[in-house]
Amino acid sequence: MNLFAGHLPGIAATEVEWRRLDFSAWGEGVTVDVPLLSEAQGLALAARVRENARSYLKTLPVAEIVATIDKAIARLLDREDPLRRQAEALLPVVTGYDAETVRLGLSGYLRTFRAPQLQRFLAEDFANPGVLDGFQPAMKGGFARAHGPELLLHIWAGNVPGLSLWSLISGLLVKAGSIGKVASAEPLLAGWFAQILAEIDPRLGECLAIVWWKGGDAASEQVWLNQADTIVAYGGNDALAAIRERAPITARFLTHGHKIGFGVVSVAALDARKAGALARLCAHDAMRYEQQGCYSPQMLFVERGGKVSPREFAEMVSRELAAFARRHPRRALSVAEAAGVAAWRSGEEMRAFDNEGRLVLGDAEDGWSVVQVDAAEPLAPSGLNRTLKIVAVESLDAVVPLVAPFRSFLQSAAIAASPEELFRIAALLGEAGVTRIAAFGTMTAPEAGWHNDGRFNLLDLVTITEIEHSAELAAEAFAPYVD
Amino acid sequence: MPGIPPVREALRESVADVTEAQIIEALLGFIDQGEASEAEFERMALAVFAYQFANNQSYRRFAIQRGRTTLTVRNWRDIPAVPITAFKDLTLSCCAPEAAERIFMTSGTTQGLRGRSHHPTLAVWDRSMLVNFRRRFMQGTKRIRMGILFPDEAAMPNSSLARYLALAQRECGAAGSAGFVGPQGLDVVGVIAALTQAEASGEPYALLGASWSFVHLLDALTGQGRRFALPEGSRILDTGGFKGQSREMGADAFYDALSATFGVPRNLCINMYGMTELSTQFYDDGNAVCPPVKSGPHWIRSRVVDPVSGRDLAEGATGVLVHHDLAHFNCASAILTEDAGVMVEGGFKLLGRVDGADSKGCSLAVEEFLKAARG
User: Which is higher by pLDDT, A347 or B146?
Assistant: First the structure.
C-alpha cells in the first residue's frame, strides 16, 4: 500500500519531488511518499501560508477556531470515519506499536482536544481568551491584545502517534500560520488532520502546510528556519542545538528535548490489597508506547517498610508486564534498539553477580525486563522498550537528591502516596525540576490543558500589544466629541 | 562412559586437568594445523570453554547466570557470549591479573572505564596475528617496506593495535620500514619522503595504520596537492574507523581517496577488523565494493544473533555479531560485540555500530544521558 503524506495548499502533487519511506510491522508493509520541496517552492508556500493566515485565520474569533478543531477531532474520534479507520490500520504498521495501543492511545489523546478541553486549554494560559480576538482591558490599566506568530514552524520528532497535533493545535488557537515538518518515524497523522480541517473549512486549510525534509538536512531546513518568526522543535539536545545554531536570532525558539519519567511509591500504597492494582498501573505506564514518550517511566522509587517490600512489588510489576506482553506484545525492535535492551540488561546482570541487593527479573527472551535494586541509585535511563528499574528507598524524601542532578531532563513523575505526602513530595520534586505529577496509569496521557515541560504553551507563542493608559487618555483629547 | 560421545568425555576430563601450559600448546598446534573442520573447531572450543569455566571466576558466574555450564553446553554455538562492555566492569582472566605479561586496553573513554584483556603470554596472540596477517595481507610476499601510521609499542604499551603493527613491521617489514607517528604527531614530511622514494625505487610499498590517521594524511597531502603512484604490488591496510579522531568519511569516499592519492587500487586497500577483546583479526579481500565480505582464520568463527535472545539469525538477516575466538583463551573466547552485521557466503559484512540507539520518541535514552553526564 502506498500513501502520500503532507499538506501543500496551492501546490499540485505533480509539481513536487517525492521521497519514499518504507515501513513494515506486524506482517504488513506500507510505503509513504513524503514531499521534498525545492527552495523556490518552500519560499512560495511559506509566503502563501503567511498571507492566508493574515487575511483569514487572524480574522476568525477564537471560538470559531475552537469549533472547527472540535469538528475535526470528532471525525478522528469516530471509528467509522474513513480517515480514522486508515489511522487505526496504518499507524501500527508505521510506528510498530500494537493496534490496541494505537487505538486506545489515539482516542485518549484526541479526547483532550474537544471543545470543552480546548476552552480549558485557553483558560489555563489566558485569564481572558478574548485577548486573542481584540483589545481587552488590562488589570494594570490600558488595553492588551495577544498576537500569534505570522509563521510558526513546527519541527516534530519521534513515532508517538499524534504528538504533532499538540503544537499544531496550539498554533491554530493563537491564529498562527503554521508549517509543520513531520518526523520520518510518523509522517502521517499531521497531514490527515490538516486534510480534515481543509474539508471542514477550506480557507482554514490554506493557513497551514505539512512538509518534510530529512532530519539533519541543514540546507532544506535553513529555508524554513529563515521564514519563521517562531520555531517549536522536538528532539534530542544535539539535534536541537544544531537547529538553534541555524535559526535566525530574531526568531523565538521553543524546544522540547528528550525527558526521563519516573515514579514514586509510598508505603501507604504498599499493602496487600492495594499493591496489586498499583503494580498493574505501573506496568501499564511502562508498556504504553514502549517507553518512547517523554512522560514514560523508566525508573520507580519504592519506599521500604511497607507490608509489601520493594522486591515483592518488583515481582508484582514483573508479573503484570508479563501479562501485558501476552495481550499487547512488544513491537519488533530494530537491531540498535534490541542491542540497547540487551546492553542494559546484561550490564545489570554483571552488577548483580557480586551483589545480593540487585536482582534481574524475567528471562532475557521475555518482552520486558525488571531490575530491582536495594541500595539507593540515582535516576538513569533504562534500556527502554519495557525495561524498568525499581529502586528501594528509605523514605520518599530520599528520592529528591537522586533525581535533582538531572533537572534539565525532568518532566513527569507519578506518585502513589497519601494526600499529605503527595503535596509535600510534589513540592520537593517541583523544586528539583519536575513539572508534572500524575497518578500511575495516566503517565502517558497528560490531561487537557497540560503545561508541556512546565511551559505556558499558548502564552509562549504570542506577543502582547498594549495600549497604555496614557495613550487612551491622550486619545480623548482628539475625540470629535471633545469639548 | 557409555552413551557419551568421546568429545564430551575428553571435555569432562579437561575441566579439572588442563593447565595453562597445555591449553597454550594445544592452541599453538591448532593454529599451525592450517585448517579445521566444524567438529575440530567444536572440540577445541569446548575445551577452551571448559578451561575458562574452571579458571575464570567472573566468566563462570556469567555462564551460570545464563544457565550454561560445561554440563549443558553441547556445541560451540551454546557457549555464552560475554557483552564487550563486561570487559570494563569485570576482570575476565583465567590467570591472576598481576601474572599477565601484557594487558591490552580499549581506547574507549565512556565513563572513564577501559575494557581490559589480560594475556599471560603473547605467544598465542602473536602466532594468531602473524599466521593470519601473512595469509591475508602479505599474500605470499615475504617482506615489504612498510610505513606505519600509528604510535609505536613503547608509546602505547596497552594498545593491541600498536602491538599488531610492531609485529607486522618486525616480522614482515623490509629494510627501510618506519613509523611516522611520534610524540609530535604525524610526520607528513617523513611520509612524503618515503612515498617519493618508494615511487622512484619501483619496489612495492605498504602503508598501515588507523583509518583516522589516513584521513589526516589524506588531508595533509591534498593541502599540498601531492599525489603518488606507488609501484605495482603496493598495498594499504587501515583499521578501526574514525572514532572522532578525524572527520568522518563514507567508505566509498575513503577508498576512492586512498586509491587516487597513493595509486593503490581499491582491491589492494584492505581493512582489518580487530578488537582489544579478541586475539585474532578479520580481513576483507580489498574494498573494490563496500561493504566487503570479512572473514577470519580457522580458529575464529562468527555468528549473527538477536541481541535480546542471543539466538542465531538466519543468513541474510541483520543482527549483532558474536565472535568466538579460540586464541583469546585467557579471557572469554565468545564475545557479543556492538557491531551490526549480516552473515553472507564466505564470511560476514559489517554494517556499523549499534551502540547508542536513540529513542524513537521523546524519551531520554542512555547514550544522550551519558553524553550529558560527561559534559
Answer: B146
Say if the Cβ atoms of A381 and B338 lie within 8 Å: no
Is the peptide bond prior to A297 cis by the omega test (within 30 degrees of 0)?
A: no
* CATH number of the domain where residue A230 is located: 3.40.605.10
* pLDDT given at position A316: 98
Q: Give a yes or no: residue A216 inside a domain.
A: yes
In the prediction, which pLDDT does A350 show?
85
CATH number for B158 = 3.40.50
Q: Is the pLDDT of residue B220 over 80?
A: yes
Instruction: Confirm if B164 and B156 have CB atoms less than 8 A apart.
Output: no
Name the average pLDDT for chain A.
94
Could you report the per-residue pLDDT of B287-302, keeping only the tens digit for each? 999 999 999 999 999 9
- pLDDT at A146 > cutoff 50: yes
Q: What is the mean pLDDT of residues A180-203?
A: 96
Contact criterion met (CB below 8 Å) for A259 and A455? no
> How far off is chain B from A157, nearest CA to CA, in Å?
7
Residue positions counted in chain B: 375
Distance CA B124, CA B135 (A): 17
Domain that residue A292 falls in: 260-438
CB distance A206 to A124 below 8 Å: no
A167 at interface of B, judged by CB pairs closer than 8 A: no
Instruction: Establish if A367 belongs to a structural domain.
Output: yes
Residues A265, A373 within the same domain: yes
Tell me which chain B residues have a C-beta less than 8 angstroms from the C-beta of A289. Answer: 361
A385 → chain B, closest CA residue: B359
Is-contact B84 B277, C-beta < 8 A? Answer: yes
Q: Are strands B235-239 and B269-273 parallel, antiparallel or unpaired?
A: parallel
Q: State whether residue A184 sits within 8 Å of chain B by CB.
A: no
Residues 353-412 (A) with a CB less than 8 A from some CB of B = 353, 364-365, 380-381, 383-384, 408-409
Arithmetic mean of pLDDT, A200-208: 97
* Set of cell numbers at residue B52: 575458562
Per-residue pLDDT at B109 exceeds 90: no
